Amino acid sequence: MPLTRPTPRAVVALSMVAAVLGRIPSLQWPMRPDEAGFLLVARAWHPEPDSMFGTYWVDRPPPIIALFKLSDWIGGPYFIRVVAAVAAAVFVLAAAGTARRLADYAGARGADRIGAWVAVATAALTSQAAIDSVAAKGEILGLPVVMGACWFAIGALMRRSVWHAGAAGLLAVLAIGLKQNLFGGLVFGGVLLLGALLTKRLDRRDFTRLAGAALAGGTVPVLAVVGWGLVVGVRLSTLAFVTFGFRVEASEVLAQQPSSTIDARIHTLFLITIVSGLGALMLWFVLRVPRLVRRSVVPTAAVAAMLVVDSAGVFLSGSYWRTYLLVPIAPAVLALGLLLADEQLMARHWRHWIGLTTRVLVAFTVVSSAVSVVEWERTRNDYLPTEYLTGRAIGEAAQPGDTLVAYGGRADIQWASGLRSPYEHLWSLPMRTLDPDLDELGAILTGPDAPTWFVQSKRLDEWSEAGTDEIREELLEDYELVSIACGAYRIYHQRRLVRPELEVDCDQPFDRLVPIFT
């Protein structure tokens, strides 16, 4: 009996399941630094006029912290990873739907099949363990929101619907509330509308209606955050600085104080871009752009602009973390949709070879993703969660009321310890930017709120020598080194207190599942 080809809907559904299964590594590893930091901020959240979150400082808008707080309330600290798995599945569904609409707009046949191929590629790239299939951060949580904005934007253009336009604007801006570099939805929708006007596919009256509706929708998240700030007493200048102003100052700091690992991170980004198949899809789209522009200029311009902006955000960020590569997946899979739609308009000979090349690229992303997950499972016990082991050991040795400062931006150590930090900076970049001479840290070490424990995860002068002599003297005078955890983290304890019994088991692999609902 011959095998029955699965329907496009079945392929999309299976791709959604694959995207969820691709997040299995998130059940096998303890809290990552950003996740831990966001949860600490969320749990201690109490707004003040000059501090949006109160106890701890983070350069994120309220929506992402609110999402972590809500998730923690529903199912505990690790439930956010369930939310991320659901977000990955919704992203696949939204990408397939958006690709179908792009195909319809371009006049291509077989829109359902095009959506199915896009769903497969989206699931593969989203599940790529080399990028990040563990941490639940703004990128993976915001991608379905970005793609939803694109879906509504195309719908607004096809149906001349102000409701679709308003929803597109709302989602595009909401995505920025989850991660400030998620501008893709705004760029896509803006270029799509403007392109339709310039090519006479949209008259001025409809353009004004749709643009106005999109603008109105986009103001909803902004007004909600501003309104919240006014109600709880946060100054608008504080809100603006935390959300966007800080990034300007931080960029200058990154330029002046580059990390010793920057070159390695850049190399890793390029390597992952190649081995994941993401770079090949982008290049194939770029090579086909001249023809695509002739056939369907408006959606091509929108996808190309989105791809440029999202890719630039990765390589101009100054930090080059591999998780950033999740962001350009959205325009890359929309580019794939345009490539597949364009095949319908080719001569038979060219359609065969061009189509074969495109499908080989999709197959490559699937194979690469599968290999990455298998490799993760094969090697994960070779890597020890030293931060978790260090923090947990400190927590077990600590006395009630003890506090901890983790120098160098290791919120995962802070989280695992269960101890409060008297220092507001849980990340290294805010510390380097807002406390450049370490005056605030020095005042804490010499004041009544001096931490019981101090963990040094980086050299004191890793980024700058400013203020480090005073910190070093204070550690030598008032603290004693009680352990070097796993050969990586120097653990200090207040000298005036009874020396604790501290034992860090650095040979213990993390061989259990995290509690996703507590």
TrEMBL record:
Superkingdom, taxonomy of origin: Bacteria
Keyword Transmembrane: yes
Keyword annotations from UniProtKB, A to Z: Membrane, Transmembrane, Transmembrane helix
Transmembrane segment boundaries: 78-99, 140-158, 170-198, 210-231, 266-285, 297-317, 323-341, 353-374
Descriptive protein name: Glycosyltransferase RgtA/B/C/D-like domain-containing protein
Species whose genome carries this gene: Nocardioides currus
